[in-house]
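step: validate -> pass
step: tokenize input -> pass
step: predict -> running
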Amino acid sequence: MKGMWARLKYLTLISLVFFIVGVFYGVCDGKISVPGFLQPSEASAKDIILNNLRIGGVIIVAGWISGGLLSNIIILGNGYLIGYVISYVTAFYGMDSIYRGLLPHFFFELLGLLFCATVGSFSARILWKWLKNKPQEFSLIIKDGLTLLACALLMIVIAGFIEGNISRVTLQ
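step: predict -> pass
step: emit ->
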């Protein structure tokens, strides 16, 4: 497993940078709204998990089609939304809502989606190995992808459970 992380750390770090840039822009943009604009709706853990699995699936497929580019654009957009929500909620409702609503599930969800983006970039990785004439590494790429996909699914399920049952916040 340690070898897998060494092989994939740069792909994951690239996605993390896209996410951080998105959060930065979202935070800078989020203070323009008026109170009451953002009204979260109640959702069960199952609904949250299914929604995040759909998003993870879109990230993976979009990445496979684009060599990882669309995966990172989606991660950038997700970061923007998170940054916008952070800025908006802290401006109108305070940091307590962030601590209770976002932080309990944030790291699990972020890891799950970053892992999906990394798996989405595997088409570029396979093409690179093919161009370097190293087809013997394809099975290792597939093994890494399946392992990372299992980790992503686990993180998304844990995040959905926490978000649906623990980190509920009402903005009033």
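step: describe -> The chain has a mean pLDDT of 86.
step: cleanup -> pass
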